[in-house]
Amino acid sequence: MTLPCPIRARVGVAVLVVVALVTAACSSSSSDGGAGPGGGISPFDARAGTEIPAPVDLPPNSHPASYQVTYRIEIRVGDDEPIVTTEHLSVRRPFESRVETYRGEPPGDELSGTVISRFGGLEIFQSAGEPIVFTTAPLPPASDLHLVEAEAVDRTGGGPGLSEPTGIWREIAGAPCQELRTGTTVVAGDLTPLDDSDPTEWAEVCIAAGSGLLLEEMWYLGDEPVRHRIATSLEIDPVLDDEAFAVDESARLPANEGGGALAPLPEGTSGRFWESSPPAGAPELMTVELVAAGASLRSGELVPVGRFELVSAQPGLGTDIASAADLVISTAWVWATTDGRWITIERGIGSLPTPGHSGPLELEGLPSGLLIAGSRFMEARFIEETGRFVRIHGTLPAADLVEVAGRLRLVDGGLVAVGDDDEVLAELRADAFSDGDESDR
Question: CA of 144: how far to CAs of 189, 340, 410, in Å?
């Protein structure tokens, strides 16, 4: 069996985050051993005693604006010595997170890596090197999962069938959680149903009642558990310091070296763009704008309308960004809510990642599209006759996201469209491709 390092993930910055976190784990050594030749505890021992009777009264679903959780993570392969690490995760929704990975059992020994996400920025630091900062799209951190909004947890029997309850409830880190089975690990962002015809991979996940946070995941390849993640502490709605989410701007990689670009559009920019309105009964909405690189954004803070031009980061390409096959150039309109939810409407050109799980989406007045389920967000996507993609991301239930998509309309004078005649886009592309041939794009 092959060690799951790195695990499957989507192309681009999201895969870079997963690789960074897993590399930190794979470069560590367990201080206490494991279930292999070195002895110690096994993943099954780590969850021993957590099973509880099904709760009679479940707390209502909530959406914590911030949280902190510490995980014990064990990676196993065959009879090799297991690798045990500790992960400290701090999240301030909708866009900020900090992940610190340590060697050894909680609370951890030596720091091996840190990943900081914020609006428009991603810093990756490993103890053996220097930090590097990429410019990112206005999306939530890869480490912040939204499994309730993705309807992975369905207690009514009417959900999309992306998970199957095992009938087991557990108490982990002081919180009750429901155990479910999915077709693969949810940590990488995918939400895939079980494949009964090919039961070679699956995961057992335990989702906290109320908050919807991930408290445990046991990932299987074949009949063997290869990675176990279990929460050892959990805090809901802590007050988190701005400094925890600050990135080193001096380490930001330039656009023409694969670092990506994100720029607010000037007032009065002309063009046509898809706009919509929030679903009925949505929480109070705030709109989001990148005031300056690294500007702080907190849940509940009202800021002006967000109008952005984006060139996707291309990790590992160096100055050869012009050859990138999965480059995306787009415009995005961002909403966020006072409780840390968000919606982004994006229109662009380029290659999009293949979804792990999707279904057809037919809406009046729009091309045929896809409704895509993920563990980080839901997505509705379609392709215009021009070949440009339009996608709506959001930490909303599927029905609400479809409602937003159904209200899409093209308007004049709003957000700029992606096109060769647009002056703002031309300038941004010229900067991003200063070492490439603009005529080929």
Answer: 9, 11, 32
4 in any annotated domain? no
Give the up-direction half-sphere exposure of residue 27: CA atoms within 13 A in the CB hemisphere. 15
**177 and 42 both lie in a single domain:** yes
- What's the sign of the alpha-carbon dihedral 312, 317, 320, 323? negative
Please check whether residues 39 and 184 belong to one and the same domain. yes
Structure token pair of residue 25: 């784990």
* Phi and psi based region of residue 243 (left: phi greater than 0; alpha: psi -120 to 50; beta: remaining): alpha
CB 228 within 8 A of CB 46: yes
Q: What letter would DSSP give residue 311?
A: E
Residues 230 and 286 placed together within one structural domain of the fold: no
> Is it the case that residue 203 has pLDDT exceeding 70?
yes
Sign of CA pseudo-dihedral 348, 351, 357, 362:
positive
- Are 302 and 216 members of one domain? no
**pTM score, whole prediction:** 0.80
R_g of the chain computed on alpha carbons? 22
Phi, psi values for residue 378, rounded to 5°: -95, 155
Shared-domain flag, residues 143 and 261: no
Query: In terms of DSSP bridges, do strands 285-287 and 175-182 run parallel, antiparallel, or are they unpaired?
Result: unpaired
Say if CB 137 and CB 33 are below 8 A apart. no
Together in a domain, 229 and 262: no
- Bridge partners of 275? 409
The answer to the question of residue 6 being in a domain is no
Q: How far apart are the first and last CA of the chain?
A: 43
DSSP 394: E
Q: For 318-345, how does the pLDDT look when each residue is reduced to its tens digit (9 = 90+)?
A: 444 444 444 566 666 666 666 677 788 8
Q: Are residues 314 and 198 part of one domain?
A: no
Q: How many domains does the chain have?
A: 2
Q: What is the DSSP string of 194-260?
A: --TT-TTEEEEEEEETTT--EEEEEEEETTEEEEEEEEEEEEES----GGGG---GGGBPPGGGTT-
Which of helix, strand or coil describes residue 188? coil
Please indicate, yes or no, whether residues 284 and 400 belong to a single structural domain of this protein.
yes
Q: What is residue 332's predicted lDDT score, i.e. its pLDDT? A: 67
Residue 327 structural domain:
255-440
The two counts, helices (H) then strands (E), for the chain are 4, 23
